[in-house]
Design goal:
It is built from 13 helices and 13 strands. It is of the alpha/beta class and 377 residues long. Strand 11, helix 12 and strand 12 form a beta-alpha-beta unit.
Length: 377
Amino acid sequence: MELRDGDPKRYGGKGVRNAVANVNKILAPKLKGMRVEDQAEIDARMVKLDGTANKSKLGANAILGVSMAVCRAAALESGVPLYAHIRKLHGGKGKYVLPMPMMNVINGGAHATNNVDFQEFMLLPKGAPSFGEAMRYGAETFHTLKKLLQKRGLMTSVGDEGGFAPNLKTNAEAMDVIVEAIKAAGFKPGKDIAIALDPAASEFFEEGRYVMKKSDGSSMTPGEMIQLWSQWAKKYPVVSLEDGMGEEDNAGWAAITQALGKKLQLVGDDNFVTNPKIFAEAIRNGVANAILIKLNQIGTVTETLETVAMAQKAQYGVVISHRSGETEDAFIADFAVGTGAGQIKTGSLCRSERIAKYNRLLAIEQELGKKARFGLD
């Protein structure tokens, strides 16, 4: 629970003076004198001081800000890079892993004011030999895509996460133009660059049906929705599908895991919310095969690390993620490397708050050299 001030006369109600006051007046006095190396103890004390199930008293934004600051301070105190300190907290061993980027190139859904129902269409440069080359693959395809959209007379303004937000004839046209861009940029679809999707199906799940409100108004049953994803996976080089079913459609999630779990990475976000208790139940029930990790969904570094460790132990894929509201802070870049997650989702190849994470990963790659490998096993 993010704590916002709610004053309509200041930042449209989104101000955070109360959260900042909670840091300075409540958290700081209670944490003073603790060792920054004791991340778990500090995080546990803050959770106890808040005393609610969802951090609504002090605010997850207040608690997480302190938690991340403590993590950075401990890295500085130890004289090691942030990713190395996170790796120590996580108990990582062996070679470091530079994550495979998921690059958002077309936005729709709640992230754009166009007529595309599905939220994110992403490039996954699986054939790149290094993180640096993955950036090149993505950037060249992204700019080629812009030219193709302009050629069709379509808008090339961008959505919340930096992907283009054109009005298209159908949702499938987004897939068609991305494949065309991959080819036109000189890459092979499926071999050099694959496609990852985040339709954010919870946004258009209504009364048991999936309603295409932004495009043609049509609707589908959960079975028909799964059939659509299956058809797309056959027709296009799709390798990852996040939130392909609504968070409240438990039967749909079970069915899609059964139908596509061996063919695609099925990533849970809205239904798992980086919460170890919720995620543990999903693992027991065999729902999905990967999890999206967002630090501010759970609110402390320690709890986030716990969820990542749980996923890795259960052999679920792990995708470290940004949010649609972002800053230039690049903590998640170090977090992805430190946890060995293998995948990161941090937006498009434009907008400084997205590029900051890519630049940090390029610097880490240069720093680690042969001590790191790139991407998924």
